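To fix ideas at the outset, we first show an illustrative case, written as a sequence plus integers encoding its fold:
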Amino acid sequence: MYADDVILFASPTIPKAHTVARVLSIFGSASGLLTNLSKCSITPIYGADEALPGIQAMLPCRIAQFPITYLGVPLSTHALPKSCWRPVVDKVAAKLPLWQGPLMQKSGRLILTKSVLSAMPIYWIMADQMPAWALEEIDGIRRQFFWAGKDVSIRGKCLVAWETVCLPTENGGLGVTNFKLSGIALGTRWLWLQRTDPERAWTALPIKVSPEVQAFFDASITIQIGNGERTLFWTDKWIDGESICDLVPTLVARVGTRTKKSRTVAQALTQDRWVRDITGGLSVLAVVEYLHLWPVITAVHLTPGVEDAMRWRWTSSGQFSASSAYKALQLGRTTFYGAQCIWKSWAPLQVKLFFWLATRGRIWTADRRKRRGLDAHDKCFLCDQVDETANHLIVSCPVAREVWWRVLSWAKCSCTFLAGEAGIQEWWEHLLSIQPHQRRKGVSTLFMITGWQLWKERNARLFDRTASSTSVVVSRIQQEADLWIAAGARKLGSLFCE
């Protein structure tokens, strides 16, 4: 396997430079791939000033000072200035088709936002911690493009808070990547590899992570003790899923920070060395904790020749995955009522987005326009009887109910209406509950067709000043159903094959 880009670390001495030059020459003779030194660079890290002229004579490369860029990632021995991250943000903005954005459906912009505009920053987050200001600017770019289609003010166009959009679909969002949580999940990956794969060359080096990443990693692993050589005595969770820090926090406060980060279980249990790690005077509480810890430690027996086994809490296999870490960071959020119906049904993404907004009350019906201080026709455009709301328009309107009855009768589905002003989710769940189980997915797709066509009819009456009878609306629904079946809505087609 050949690589286009290689980074070599070597001591800043002339013999080392001679060795590198010789290795490159041998590689070129064996493979035919000669190194173009004019495209290479030498970057001194520490202590190379005196030897640099001799090294450059041996390897005639240009001298590049930090910060440098490798595989698109800015690198430096110090904190990167803002000017180094600015090109990264500009690359994300350059991917936007500004002239196409306003012409694209919101569904198309969502796909582009979730794929291109979210994937590019993930590459940089995986390699290094991006500064908060850069992530905020990229989030602003994604938000503007999704809601407006171009780099303009989105005031009045942002129908749902961006934090909600970045939630998983089951929690009421659209599944757009949350960069902050992704940074924690991907930062945890380095800690996991450092502890479970000691063959990697960098595992002996200290890894700088944020306190959130370290806390999440500590809470997500459990360790089964073998020989105790790879488990930290004071901080790892190796006693029935708990760490000694959790069991006796007052006593652990008397242990030095460097000792807590380096003392393994095997070292600590050798001649009870862990007792000598405790320094200074002990309070009464610390003595009580010590007496509680002693029998726990004396009951531990190591197994020579068996390595310690680290398990990841959030997967059944016990192996780390970034997706499981990202999902674990979402635990505890409220489940969005109706998400299953919207996202598990067969329908074009544009229609799913409409129902996602409608169930949240975010479509531009009269009640929402009046709350925003905008001009609005007070009465429902379908029945012209009561104030227009999303729930009334789709569910409770007399015209809508007639359409529902005729469409469900055409599909030979049961239909009973709920009393009062029912919500879209309640009506949807009720309609599915009275159908045979094997027909529910098809009925759910039919539900989305019907609600979508009711909304289009409402807009036709508002903007085009044209009103269609319920028979015409039902006919359009039937024609749309035929198109959806031809496009792959098999469960919908099965409603008419029985």
Summary: Strands lie at 41-42, 62-63, 68-70, 73-75, 221-224, 237-239, 242-243, 309-312. Residues 380 and 456 are 14 Å apart (CA to CA). The longest helix spans residues 440-464. The mean pLDDT is 89.
